[in-house]
Amino acid sequence: MARLARIATMRLACTLAMMWLTAAFVPGRADAATFTIDAQDLAGALKEFAVQSHREIFFAPELARGRTTQGVRGDYDDLKALRLLLRGTGLGFSVTPSNAILLRGPGVALSATGSGAPSSEEHAGETVGKLASASPSRMGVESAGRTVSPTDTTTLDEIVVTGRYQFLSVDTRGTTNLPLPIEQVPQTIDLVSADFIQVANLRTLGEIASYTPGAINAGNPENNGTVIEIRGFTAGRAIDGINAISTYTSYEPDFAIFDRLEIVEGPSSVVYGIASPGGLVNYVTKSATSQTPTYLYAQGGSWNNYRLEGQIQRPLDADGRIRVIGIAALDTGDSFTNNLNHHKDVIYGGINAEISESLSGYVHAGYEWYSRPSFDGIPTESDGTPAPVPISLLVGSSAIKIDTKARYATALLSWHPSSLLEFDLKGNYENAGLTGGNSYGYGLQSNGGFNFNVTQFDGVQTTINWGIEASSIIRFDSLGLKDSFVSVSALLQDSNEGTNVAFPANQGTANILSGQTAISQAFDALYFGPLPYTYPSVINTRTYTLSGQSVLKPFDNLSVLLGASYSKPTIDTTTSGAIQNYEFPGQTSYRAGLTYEFLPHANAYVSYSESYNPQPLLTVQQTILPPLSGRQYEAGIKYRPANSLLLTGAVYRIVESDLASYAESINGLDYYAPLGEVTNKGVELKALGQLTPNWQINAGYSYLDPKITRNSDPTTIGHTQLYLPQNTFSLYTTYMLSRGWISGLSVGGGLRYVDAEKTAYDGTTRDIPSYKLVDINIGYDTGPWTARFILSNSFDEKYFINNYQTLFYGNVPGTPRSFSLSVRRTF
């Protein structure tokens, strides 16, 4: 293990060194944001630009005096938007080494070094001198530990843009095919920034869900990757705005490559084609932008876990119109569970290019290798009584591993021929291949005896998702309809899941009280013995979707959203050579909403939306489940009093038909049955961002009331659905001290509470107990260095998570008290 770790470390170091050297010889575009700046005097327009871009901008007042701008409207990166804003004014700008924007007058040359700063000390001093004597103005102000006043005469080298972690992502547009910030969309969308993920040391999607109201951790089946549920339904997944429709989780993606997660709650078929009724997680990959940091990160912690991560971003031209990003990470270590080690390598790169004033795009791609033993939890007795064994027991063997090699890519080409018209063409591709096999135990008896089984991938199990979308936005400002537009798109989604599993003729038996060695030997004997039965299967799902959405503003404070989509899915299954084609009728889904700004920055909304989602799951009769379809009613308030704080509250009611429910397992394969109709009602509250420049907060509360309203089994009607907590609460906060000898010290932590989960309608089995977890976070920032100590589950709470919404396989123990120590250096 130590030798492998050294080799992996050397491999990562060499990769980072090559990335660094490649960028070092290159002279040294942001994620698009929606800009709505009308024609006006330049000073006012610059103020709006600073607010909407979250950028610092310095300029002498006389530069803006007497000048006007035609404004800018549309989705642009910040520097391109500023160039459009300054058209015809004769002014230009440069970007300082600390990422502040410096407005310059006619005749002042820009640097050829790629930083955007003046090209020589003499020239730089001349420019700064003029600004200083003129008392430069500063918009969108936030500095690391101090405030720069309008009369600040600090030289450029001393101007510092904040490097502090931000819980609220700068870009709050969301990938919705609506050129609106999230606070104006009549639907709940939660943001999880890369900063928050790193500050809180969140390693899995399940941990991220625990800080998202309405979302819960639904387990880690086979130790492949965590699954979450949103508003009581299994969440879908999208990458850069295109849905990945495969239902199979084949690995836990590394979050170093993502700028943020957008958790869309509720039906979204009008936007994403076929989609889960509860919502989906849209993974937004990192771009090479003028604000993307270059950093090195190292972390170590409990059970010999350590992580090395590096990110580099550089411009390829003097104007910063073409930028590249590279990321490499290594994550390896053990677990509190015996012999449950893991190893992950990550390589990611991308290029963002502003090809012309109207044409831009990006290509992002990566590769991950993820190796770990299979593990499905510790079996319970039939009534849910936990096994009388330590939570560290591995019910399986470290020799039964799963290796995932995942390749992925996303691309976008965006054309803005005018401020009223834009066209986008985007696509994504993901290929995840698994080798190895799975193992699991079940049927625990009171004397400790239990059954177990194994499956082995006969070759490589693959999951391939790809999608391509063409969309256009037409604005109606020229017709006198300010902030009104129509959005249309055509989407093709495809998923192919191919597997050929081998399994033994008979199940194995063991005693859970016999100890780790005996249990592992029993699993090995079955897994590495004869596996005479194979089950080859291929499921291909393809869907075509045409969608249209329109936002009209009949009054300044009122907007109306109308949308519709038509989806036509087909599913082909091949099982043991037998081909079955399932042709579903086309489905039309609708969406409508009203948003009213009743106070400045405060929007109230009501909305209606529908969902449609084929379910490529088999019944015991070897038929496929009917599509899941339904509707949601939602009302809420979103308040954004400042750029760095977002408050939301929502109530909703979702009615869905034919929800899949676990039926039974036969020869290692799971079968399902449709559950009639369910009605989920709930309340969600969220506060995200900064309360003060030094105080960050992420708080949420959710109440869920999921009831069965129609079913073939009348005894279940009116009952609460199983394996869903009614109440969840979370809070994570950090506060940075900025005065005296303790300046730079931050303190904080997190609290998570999850209600008990019912496991039987008639109460004959034990509930999965509620739990609360407390984390402690202490950090210290000094210049470009950040050190952080985290104590997770500080009170060593014992808790369990269920994987499959059944006690058949038992439960997975939660992580006990653990610690991590990290150091980050930003360049």
Write a structural description.
The protein is mostly beta strands and 827 residues long. Helices cover 11% and strands 50% of the residues. The protein is built from nine helices and 45 strands. It has a 25-stranded antiparallel beta sheet that branches. A five-stranded mixed beta sheet has the order 9-15-16-13-14. Helix 2 (42-53) runs antiparallel to helix 4. The two termini are 32 Å apart. The relative contact order is 0.11. Residues 1-30 and 108-163 have low confidence and may be disordered.
Strand percentage lies at over 45%
Which sheet architecture does the biggest sheet show? 25 strands, antiparallel
The poorly predicted ranges are 1-30, 108-163
Number of helices: 9
Choose one word for the global shape.
globular
Distance between the termini: 32 Å
Average pLDDT score: 84
Class by alpha and beta content: mainly beta
In total, how many beta strands? 45
Helix content: 10-25%
Radius of gyration (CA) equals 27 Å
